[in-house]
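Re: [help] complex structure
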Amino acid sequence: MERQVSRPSPVRGGGQSAGWWRGLASTKNVRATERRLLPRPGVGEVRHAELFASSREASGAGLALAFALGQAEPADQRPWLWVQDAAALRLSGRPYRPGLPPSLRHRLLHVAAKSPEEALFALEEGLRCRDLAFVIGELAGNPKALSFTASRRLSLVAEVHGVPLWLVRLDAQHDLSSARQRWEVTAAPSLAPRWNPAAPGLPAWQGTLFRARNHPPGEWILRDDGQTRLVADWATAPPHHGDLAGAAGDRSLAAG
Amino acid sequence: MAIWLARLAIDRWQLAEGQYGNLGAQPLALISESAHGPRITAVNAAAREAGVRAGTSLTDARALCPELAVAPADPAGDLALLERLALWAQRWGPWSALDPPDGLLVDVSGVAHLFGGEAQLLADAAERLAVRGLTARLAVAPTAGAAWALAHYGPERAVLSRASPLGGGGRREAADGGGMARQQTAPLRPAFGGPPPRVGEDLGVLHELPVAALRLDPATLLVLRRLGLKRIGDLSGVARDALTRRFRSVRAPAANPLVRLDQLTGRVPEPMLPVLTQPPPLVQRRLIEPIRHRPLLDQVLSDLADDMVRVLEGQALGARRLELTLWKVDGEVIQRRLELAAATRAADHIMRLFAAKLDDIDAGFGIELARLTASWCEPLALSQRDFEAAAEAHGTSLAACIDRLSIRLGAGAVRRPEPVASHWPERAQRWLAPLEPARAAQESLTLHARPLKLLDRPELIAVIHASPDGLPRRFRWRGNLHEVTHAEGPERIAPEWWRERGAARLRDYYRVEDATGRRYWIYRYGHAADGRGGVPEWYLQGLCS
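Output below.
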């Protein structure tokens, strides 16, 4: 499972990680208890995640794309689906092909749904399709149609068919949901580019993972390094306890 | 055999109006609207007597003939009639082609003996066409070009016989046209096989026809007339090298008399598109007892879908459009139509898509006949099933997914962006149907960063900038203030002058980032000194990731 997904955090300098998934926890500063909770590599791929973002910025969609790119196989050339309801389309705009990541540009299928109900139908149909690489949904607000039951349906369909769903919630409250990971995303100041320090650099996001099934919550600065890799740094340094214990490895948690 | 329906439009109008008996009663013209007012496209005999000609404007014609009656022309209807006639004309030969706007070509090689000879064939055709009320001129010749020339400019019912490759001189075929056979010195060679005839030797009666019989366009005819070449024989008199030199840069057959001359004599082949009937795959069920309930209708539909799949499989086709027609006892007809993203032959998929469309059907006193037609089919070969049965059973295919989405959300809801060669940001992509094949396009240069999302309509923002042409410092968008910390620009994009009106202003694009890290794509519309409006306004168009 050595994917070209991320590189070890340059700030923290942890050296043993390859996936963004592990990149999130690859630093030595992670407490031993947290480290033990990490999933085994390749097992805990996220099938349904929610990203709460503001409609005044494209951070939600940007981070969802970065996550999806990080989790997808590099050789995967299947199309992917982007579903937007009318409110999301009006508030945050329509996908623009020249601005999409180069490896995703030519594979986009866009669905403009009129209502949240239609958007949910499109999401579910997309998740049932074996020819799609992943599905990105964008819904504005807290529509009544997106109840806990509806989100549970989406989770189950995504897990049964193995198609990941990244659902971006624009200007939404943290309502009940069965998503496996729930993030709060805002834009973060970008690193200054090399040649023109006055220009905006490559995108960065501040992601707060506030609910996750198999990952400790935390806050990260996630950066896109321009080569379809996602780099995660701790936003706030956790208390440093030193290396108290080694990795849990494949032992059961009870034994560790 | 060439059939020239010399007065197709007028004949059709008169047949439709039921004025077959009193043809020459009053002058009549068919008109079509043009940029310079109504123009006459066809006239009847009485109008022609009065001096009205096709091609003149209606006001000129009214000056000549004040009592002229007019009716709108219907070129589409004429073409439809011509298509039906082309199929009907296959009674005289296995193969027919259209010669728009008013001609037909029928391949009658080896057929004439069934009618007792070419002359009898022509007589039969003329009689049948006359019964249908159509004025026609007919001719039979070895090549399509020669038949066309004789039908338009030759004598009535001319026959130019085909020489046997061995027979040399060939026999002479009598023709109804009288003088025609006497003028004929040697019959034409067949289009293929045998040595090609030499110029000026085998053209025979065609020598006497005007050059317009070569199916040339008006500009070329004008050139030939200025050169003093009025008849086809004159062309043969000129050395071939001279003609080749004169028209060496013209490739289109309609503009090159040499090509047309060779097609006339059969030296070069002339490919044509035949008219073929393709009956759409159709299955139907006539019901003994009219059905009034949905489960029964579903059962009937599932039987129909199974039948349709069997028919399609036999022809190696897949359906793209399906039409379900239900006849009710009380005489009403219900029609439901379905379009599919890709050719399909899956009965359960068809059933599922139709199920959503049958909810609002009012059966009334019952449905007695159900018919399923595949009005648009595409080739779909039989394919081997997947080795792993689970791979097929799991999930749906992309085409099925798109079908379901299009049926529920509407046809234009699912789309795919395609790049367009344009600097103007809104025009740099267009939306296509999802499974439409990508067009070949040049890879565009990616010199500048573009936003992830584009607002459908750029939103007006209030900007404070350091100097009149400087970088923006802060701006207000949707009620909130953004402090600009990073900015890059301007990237100047000029309007496409070949599309926009002259006063369109250019755009200066800036990529900006505010204090909290939000990244936007904003532009200034015009600049202060361009003289195309007042103080330039600022717009926010894109959101960067």
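The two ends of chain B are 69 Å apart (CA to CA).
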